[in-house]
Design brief:
Length: 155
Amino acid sequence: MLPPKRRNFLKQSASFALALLSSFFSTKSAHAAWPAEHFSGDSFSDSLTRLFNIHSITDSGLIKLSLPLVAENGAVVPITISSDLDNIERIFILVEKNPTPLAAEFELSAAVSVYITARIKMAESCNVVIIAQQGASLLRSQQWVNVVQGGCGTG
């Protein structure tokens, strides 16, 4: 039989662990919104049409894009997006030849400066296209990336 102090300690520890686990499983966790229709497996042009309807997209050097010219592994391609423009509401990252062209969509507050860094998957060598929504206008920046080893199910 255990001494009273040890028994009380074990009871209290078990109660605490049970309370912690029940609070962990009962609270709602935060998840990013997942608009499934945006991330469907359409072609690149179909994705552009679905996302931006018939709005014209203007090429802009004001959206700075940093990607490697050659990606050794398409499963992990680093990307950095930055801009000094004000009031950018959304940033879209699209990869032309991926099975799902939309790699990411970011909704931003007007109060923040644009600086996004991430890792994306690329199925093969192609353009990575960034589209920034600033009010009613859409601005595009793109860069070609050569992929040595595939990342979206190819190798």
